[in-house]
């Protein structure tokens, strides 16, 4: 098991079994067992992303081996490997731009700060208002349009787009 370059959805399964120590018909079951476990992860139930799995060794039994047995064994091995790998939670960060009349700047800035936002700058919008640029965790942006309308009497607007993903620090 090894990390891949960050990108959010990566998973790669590489079969490096030599000499038939695991019969070919069981290899897809190993992949399936891992894929099924990826979706629930081991940290707070979040999916695992950006991981490469190399199948390098294994064994089978003529009587007891089955597709299901290999799926379950792969799932258990993946969970144990993840525990040993010290996985981290990732958080999507959004680039946010708010256009607001100047009299609401304090309310807008305070609300962005409460949402764990980092204000990057402010500019005049050319028509008597201000543009605020910030980076804010996506999880904090739910309900923002309603809160912004309430704080500015419906006079402010905002746009938001994906910026990057940050690793959350353990708490």
TrEMBL record:
Gene3D superfamilies hit by this protein: 3.30.230.10, 3.30.70.240
Pfam families linked to this entry: EFG_C, EFG_IV
Keywords, comma-separated and alphabetical: Elongation factor, GTP-binding, Nucleotide-binding, Protein biosynthesis
GO MF term set: GTP binding; ribonucleoside triphosphate phosphatase activity; translation elongation factor activity
Every Translation elongation factor EFG/EF2 domain range: 1-86
BP terms from Gene Ontology: ribosome disassembly
Limits of the Elongation factor EFG domain: 88-169
Described function: Catalyzes the GTP-dependent ribosomal translocation step during translation elongation. During this step, the ribosome changes from the pre-translocational (PRE) to the post-translocational (POST) state as the newly formed A-site-bound peptidyl-tRNA and P-site-bound deacylated tRNA move to the P and E sites, respectively. Catalyzes the coordinated movement of the two tRNA molecules, the mRNA and conformational changes in the ribosome.
Protein name: Elongation factor G
